[in-house]
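Please check our next protein.
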Amino acid sequence: MTNELVSGRFMLLPLDSRKGGQSEVRKAVDTHSPDGAAAAVKLLTPRQDDEVIELFLERETGALKELRHPNIVEMLDSGWDQGLGRYFVALEWIDGSLKDEMARGRAMSWSAFFEQIGGPLSSALAYAHGREIEHRDIKPGNVLLTADGTVKLADFGIAKIRSKVAAGAPAQETVADFRSNLYSPPEQTDSLAYVRDVFGFGVLAIQVMSAGKAHDYADLAPVLDGLDLAPEIHRVLADCIDFTPGNRPPNAAVLEQRLRDADQVCRARWARRHNFLWLKLTRAAAETVLEIPRGTDIDWQRAQAAVMDDIGGPVHADYGFNQQTGEVDRDTIRLAGRSLFLRLKADDRDADCSAIVQVQRKSEDWLARWRAKAVPVAGLLTFDFRNPGEDAAYDGLQALLDELDGHDEARAAAKRQEQQASLGDLFDGWRRLLDAREELAAGGREPLYYTQVTGEGRTRVFHLTRTAADPNGLLGEEWSVADYAQGRPLERGQITGASEDQVIMTLPRSARRIPERGVLLPYLGPTQTALARQRDALTAVAEEQGANRLLRQVIEDPASVQIGTPAQISDWFRGDLDDSKREVVRHALGSQDLLLIEGPPGTGKTTVIAEIVEQTLRRSPKARILIVSQTHIAIDNALKRIADSGRSDVVRLGLPDDPRVAGDVQHLLLDRQIKRWSRQVRTKAEAHLERLAANNGLEARHLKAALTLEGLAAVAGDIAHVQQRLLDLTEQPTSDRTSSARELAEDIVTARARLDGLLEQRGELFTLVQRQLEGDLTLKEDMAAADYRTVVGALLGGNPVAAGMLDVLRLQGEWLQRIETDQALVGTFLRTRNVVGGTALGFLAHPAVRDLDFDLCIFDEASKATATEALVPLARARQWIMVGDTRQLPPMDEDLLRNPKLMEDYQLIPELVATTLFQYLINASRPPVRHLLREQYRMTPAIGNLISTCFYQGQLRSPGTHTLPGYDGLYKPVCWIDTSRLGQRREAPRTESDPSALNRTEAQLIARHLQTLDRAVERRVIKPGHTGKLEVLVIAPYSRQVEELRRRLAPLQLHHLATEVLSVDAVQGRECDLALFSVTRSNERSDFGFLGEPYWRRINVALSRARYGLVIVGDTAFCQSKPGALSQVLDYIRTHPVDCEITDANL
């Protein structure tokens, strides 16, 4: 054999192949893998009936594409290889199989079989059956074993997808002729789904445990009876091999549950004989048991006997619980016997011994309530005050801890389900939520139905069916005209007159078609477009029509996300990635559909995103990746990082003149790239014309002008076409509508945008041709296509050589014109880009994007997006990575939450309105679906440690050592300037006209502090490491305080500080050298407002911006008058005097 390359990717190795009935399997090297991973290439055997081979290919690949499970083999590629002339399927290479193990002739015990083979195999089958896929060929050769013993179910070659059969697929497509002897049931029909696989599993279990003693159907029952099995296990396997299909477990999910239940019974029986919980009594506990005074001599034997008597019957256990933090205390175990409630801790001297440190006598009612939430353990353990031996004590304690861990996880899962249930049907709730947002955006303005329209030209009078509620309030507003309330807008104009029964509307142009009967709708502007995109995405996901139909299932049951195997990466683009980031990247490149990344401030989210993108494209060079964010700055940072690495296939979606698009990524904008492409093509075309002119004695500028005129002719033709298209759309009768009203509205918007672009292009070309002609001809810009071509003929008609070039010029002109405006060509260009970025809703503004699907969507700042906003990009991708921080500010529908009537009308609850999709998925997920980036490098350790302790449960690390030289000579990195001793510390009285808070004293103190900092830099006390100004953010939680601070700072001459004053909401996502936070609130009522305990995220945002120095100005006595984030921050500062300080304010 010689090395051959399959599909340009898999290099077949010159080794013997594995041959089966329908295929041969060759070992290959995956040349797209950075570490040269091995692959198994299954080459389907050529036959005359290629339809059967195609069917095998469809079944194998179709099944594997549906399945993502750690115990199912992963498919890498499939298709037709032209060089070999054969169909192929490429899978991960696995050297061993259960067939190889059985060939050694060693029988397995039930416990070994179930742990190593049976459990994983039944789980994989249950997963497949849950997706209506049967394997149909369970046998040892299809159960592969990795080097570490992991089971991988392979060869779905005769898989049958029940949903396809139910939909009416032809019966001959069941491929029922291909069977595997003993492992296939004796019946020849498939009237019952899934029981064929159940039979195969039962036979496989018997053969593995008996070392293959059964040779025919008749041997199965006797061989099973001869195995040393518990009656519970025997009963399940006997049902599996029952020759009557209806007597078998109906599917693998039922089989798996029955096996696990039976196995648990057996393990409990074994555990009681082998697992001992070694107990000791402390003096305090013994005194309570014996009910004797402290210090009295203790009869230890009697005390131990009393405890043993109490826990001799039913016993329940649970971990401890910390009432203050609300967290599980895994260092404490609680036991409830008949009347005693015991608390256990690890013994100081013997690690495997549990010391009873507290005993309480509780009423039967109290114990009954507690037992209902605990786990029974009497059948799991034998309790003993004598040392049972090292192994028995260790096994007993570990068995108890494992049971408590499982119980704790089950309780957490139940809590997640309860939270999900409280949200109700999410998709129905989200639809109501969008309707409520639309009504809120309309400002309470209801549609106005009319029965007659009069008038001509731009002014029309609409006669209403019922009285308008507030006619004068309509004046000056923009409204749209439609056939019906949910219909697409046909025209839009301004209300210039109104009475109770009629409305006068002035249109921007003479309307071609206004329905005689219809409805006037309040114009919602961009809000309407955003809501429409969210509704479309919601519908696509709900109907499983997105790029990955499993998205709905993931949302409804986040726990169903299959955990993928982390990718092996040996070569990193960024060598300084810490362990938590590398772990995230490995899982991102694995096979799981969803990855959630929690990225606190300064943890390098952009770095992780860039690494994921580059590693993905290294492995899959043709992958198309969508990167979106809620803010322009975040998407621009990510795209710049990727483009700076040398990638030229990055495109930014957005408006060319949008000031929110960063200057250093403007060149990545799609429109600018298209224009550059167009200019390059035009330059090459003009250079070619110059050569033709020189060779044929022609004037070069006339040839160039002719080329431009042909472009104008093409533009004029397109303008006429688009104008007719707009006419057709506006005159299209209701009965002709074949898609949603929103889609048709998008068609009109798209056509008008295309017309505007063509008119702009015509102007540019007309200016160009005027310059080229140098006054030789007089033209009008709005000529028709035929008129432009007549000018071309007049310009070149006298020269036979030039006349012969007219067709070529015409083609070139049309091509140059189409490059910039033809959406098909723009879409073609876009498909050549691997990385596409834009805002979460704005990326769909470009028509060419609407037909694209993506292999991967990376959603940065996903915690800032509402649930329905998040669906818009996710619906377009097959795999999803969401990055965010649930401890920063989420999006707020405050206007909606404060409107009880709307909330009631649309049956909304606050949790549904306020919970983002990212928060919802985080709550319902665990690692490795959910990851936390733990190392932050923005904040100096003093600030980083404060943020970690107060807001992230101490999970963040700050390994950086960066400081601002000289700053410590003035202040410690965290400094609280305390106003509590000042007589004027209180906030100003609030007014009805402006209820926002204001604190002039704090504003004055901050102004003085900034002047001190500026002088320190001037005198070289503080020595910035760069030549520019220090970046300073002054942050306040209230708009009046922001205005007061800006007023105070405006006259200051701060030569060395670049200072911005912003609200807390506005600084999210920003960073700076120094941050000053004005608490603002201080009053006798202990009214914290937006700084109270429920708003701790606002404090986190405000305090986590600075690299070097954080200054808080506020009243410490007030801030500690109630529990909350500010009180916790003050506690931290007081207990960390090395890095933090509290100084008295001095005016």
